[in-house]
Amino acid sequence: MASVPVYCLCRLPYDVTRFMIECDVCQDWFHGSCVGVEEDAAADIDLYHCPNCQLLHGPSVMKRRRGNQKQVDSAAGKDVGKTVKTGSSQFIKELRSRTFPGADEVILKPSGAQLTVEFLEENSFSVPILVLKKDGLGMTIPPPSFTVRDVEHYVGADKEIDVIDVTRQADLKMRLGEFVNYYCGSRREKVLNVISLEFSETRLSNLVETPKIVRKLSWVENLWPGESVFERPNVQKYCLMGVRDSYTDFHIDFGGTSVWYHVLRGEKIFYLVRPTAANLTLFEAWSSSSNQNEMFFGDQVDKCYRCPVRQGQTLFIPTGWIHAVLTPVDCLAFGGNFLHSLNIEMQLKAYEIEKRLSTADFFKFPNFETICWYVGKHLLDIFRGLRENRRHPAAYLVHGAKALNTAFRSWTKKERHFHLAWRGEDPVATQFLFSQALAEHEEEIPGTVRPAQLIRDLAKEIRLVEDLFQQNIGKTGSLFGLQRGTQPGATAKKGDQSPKEPGRKGSRRHVATVKALELELLNKYTRQALKGVESPGQEEFDLPSSSLEDTEGEPDLTEEELSLVVANGRGSR
User: Fold this and answer.
1) Cα-flanking dihedrals φ and ψ of residue 472, to 5°?
2) Which residues, other chains included, contact 139 with Cβ-Cβ below 8 Å and sequence gap of 6+?
3) Which of 23, 124, 131, 204 could cysteine-pair with 154, CB 3.0–4.6 Å?
4) Which helix (H) or strand (E) holds 179?
């Protein structure tokens, strides 16, 4: 029987309902959704190059726009055979002159006070957020008069730092004092950029406090045990010092961490790309190509957004977003990285991409798998406690727990041989199989975690939560078992909250009273549940974990009203 032809990166048969485009080099066909080409935009492409062929033949060739043909041919003739290297002066010049879609198409701009855990839950923290003024962010930073000389004073001139030679896109080592002299000097023969000066263990740390939202969400801030035998990841506080024309090429931050940047002096321009499946595939191919420094990744995707961040502004980039950064003027900024529970699956995807690209350990999130095990154990305790109190976690957290448990199985995938072999007659061989299975990942498993037991128990709790979801849907027709507006069978009264207006103030006082009781109950349970997370004698630790929804419902409460968050192990609004 003849096999059915397959196409595209997904290697699926032809589907008449899906738009496809043919590569002009390899002649293979690709789904537009898989390679980031919209059907309407295909008409502007003269020669299409698929992700694989782009590695050798460069990006697709677009059709020429109407204009003076002699001028077009003349301009093109000047660059024939000339390759523009990433970071070179010509590259920076061309980048400055180009136009890109404005980031206002995708970003959100809340005030600092509006940027709460609830705000991020409602928007799933899936797009970048630009806060124009730091007021309300709960962030402490030095005044704008603070300079790189002050950084040198608080960190120490002899501190060895990593510096990027922008033109060569290469790393080098310097003493901080040497870099500051270069930065402040009048003659700059090279363009040097500092983006990885982590200062948590220096005196500068006393002058900088991360935004409150970061402290609430961060796994490291809330979960890492004080007496862990593993070194605590210090990635929360970075000082970035770049001179004019500094450029950092496209990347995903390590471990899929989200990032915050505050520009104290100067300006940064971010080039942002959505982490769609197609864009991540293109990014991985581009990152592993031999001529990566000759291709601008923004040209390979359907949209690359330009986002200027000016002095006094703060940018939050969510999990997985691919981005590059240009420094148009000398700039001093602060920032940091954080893992959280709002998009666990994407964090794990980024980690897997790093492994496939054989990323050096220096550029990975420290002890990434270790903190995931801590999170898994904590989520297990939280899920159990909520179930015992006839409550359940938010859907996004259940989804994240499933992704986390899948990763645990992958990291210990041969462990099932341990259980099968144990039924045999050779326990020595059994132990050998077990040791071999965990060789790659065992160094990052905390001693307080029993991997096989945690995987089974977490899977069980996830099944119970999903069963509860289905029961509530069957009873009420609502995912969370709640009705918007009045309760079933109740008679609506004049002034009652309308289902179309859940934000009106009619029942605010009653809602606040109920919330206070709920938070007290949740607080009490959380403190008790977290006592057993680490070994006896170790301190308790907390994790931002979920929105909570009452499975039985309360009068006048809506899904939005009950979006209570376990942040720092405490309910918060």
Assistant:
1) -70, -35
2) 112, 209, 210, 211, 212, 262, 314
3) 204
4) helix 176-184
Q: Are 400 and 380 contacting, i.e. CB atoms less than 8 angstroms apart?
A: no
Distances in Å between the Cα of 462 and the Cα atoms of 152, 384, 399, 484 are 50, 10, 9, 26
Q: Which residues of 539-569 are buried (b: 16+ CB within 10 A; e: fewer)?
A: ebbbbbbbbbbbbebbebbbbebbbbbbbbb
* Contact (CB, 8 A) for 401 and 344: yes
CA atoms within 13 A on the CB side of 470: 6
Residue 140 has a CB neighbour count (10 Å cut-off) of 12
Distances 568 to 2, 278, 371, 452 between C-alpha atoms, Å: 59, 36, 16, 27
pLDDT beyond 60 at 498: no
CA distances from 546 to 237, 270, 369, 518 (A): 25, 31, 21, 14
Q: From start to end of 199-257, where are the E strands? A: 238-242, 246-251
Distance, CA of 100 to CA of 106 (rounded, Å) = 13
Q: Which of 301, 5, 283, 330 is nearest to 185 (CA)?
A: 330
From CA 199, how far away is CA 339, in angstroms rounded?
A: 18
The C-alpha atoms of residue 349 and residue 353 are separated, in whole angstroms, by 6
Q: What distance in Å separates the CA atoms of residue 201 and residue 155, rounded to the nearest whole number?
A: 9
CB–CB of 237/334 below 8 Å?
yes
109-148 tens-digit pLDDT: 999 999 999 999 888 799 999 999 999 999 999 999 999 9
- The answer to whether residues 155 and 199 touch, using CB atoms and an 8 Å cutoff, is yes
What whole-number distance in Å separates Cα of residue 174 and Cα of residue 241? 13
Continuous H helices in 312-394: 344-356, 368-388
Tens-place pLDDT, residues 547-557 = 333 333 333 33
